[in-house]
Each structure stands twice: as C-alpha cells, then as structure tokens.
Design goal:
Helix content is 75%, strand content 0%. With 148 residues, the protein is an all-alpha fold. It has 2 domains: 95 residues, no CATH class; 53 residues, no CATH class. The protein is globular, with a radius of gyration of 18 Å. Keywords: Membrane, Transmembrane, Transmembrane helix.
Length: 148
C-alpha cells in the first residue's frame, strides 16, 4: 500500500478518535474493577493479545526473535504508553473527556516541539518558529476553554 500524507493524516485522525473513546471506556472498566491501575493492566493485556495475533496473522512473528538485537532502552515505549492509559482513565471522571484529551494533546505538542527542535530520537531538526508556538498556544487556549 502506498503511504501518502493524506492517508497518514486520515489514519492518525481515526487513531485520535479512538483514543478519545479509549479513555472513558477504560475509566468505566476501572470503576467496574474497582482499580484504575487494574483497568490499565487489563487494557494493555487485551491490546497485547490483539497485537500479537495481528503480527502472527501477517506472518511477521520473526520480529519477536530479533528483540535481542535492539537497544534495551527502546522498550520504554510500553511503559510510557501504560502511564498514558492509566493517567487518561484516571483523569476522565474528574476532568471529562474533552478536557482530558485537550490536556493530552497539549502535552504531546510540548514534547513534540522539544523533540523536533533538537532532532531527538533520530528525527530531523525542525526549528521552533512563531507559527509552531502559535499552534501550541491555540491548543493551550482550547484546553483552558474546555475547562472554564
């Protein structure tokens, strides 16, 4: 399949919509289990099973055999995702879905500005300019407006 910017944007938009549903669903799971941390673990377990099944169905199981070839610090991504899942499901009942997702997006933008500016993690350097700061500021304004 040819990957184009339009296709990538569409897939990411759908992914973002799924994240907006994921947090309140996981919050309901947490209430049902009586544990936000337990709900995050169950959510990750279900996601892990689904991903392993997809890897195997696509015939890419050999990827698991190459795990010894990667730098160990690259495995931290799972822990970062686990923290996000827990934080979002914990915050949704307190802040609501819109404010929680606005805060998530603003946090992502702040980190992305730093990553781009310094070219971290092998990405090309993209300077922080006035338009990029304005974009983040508009999301910050939306975060404030979503709450007050």
């Amino acid at each position: 399949m040819q990957t184009t910017p339009a296709l990538a944007l569409g897939v990411v938009l759908i992914g973002g919509m799924m994240i907006a549903f994921q947090a309140p669903i996981n919050a309901m799971l947490g209430r049902g289990l009586g544990s936000a941390l337990g709900a995050a673990a169950v959510s990750f377990l279900v996601g892990t099973v689904a991903l392993v099944a997809l890897v195997l169905l696509r015939g890419e199981g050999g990827a698991f055999l190459r795990i010894d070839d990667i730098r160990p610090w690259l495995l931290i991504g799972g822990a970062l995702g686990a923290f996000y899942v827990w934080a979002a499901l914990w915050a949704v009942p307190v802040l609501g879905a819109l404010t929680t997702m606005s805060a998530v997006i603003f946090g992502q933008l702040l980190a992305a500005l730093v990553i781009d500016h310094f070219g971290l993690l092998g990405l090309p350097v993209r300077e922080i300019g006035l338009t990029r700061i304005a974009a983040a500021a508009l999301v910050a304004a939306g975060l404030v407006l979503s709450r007050y």
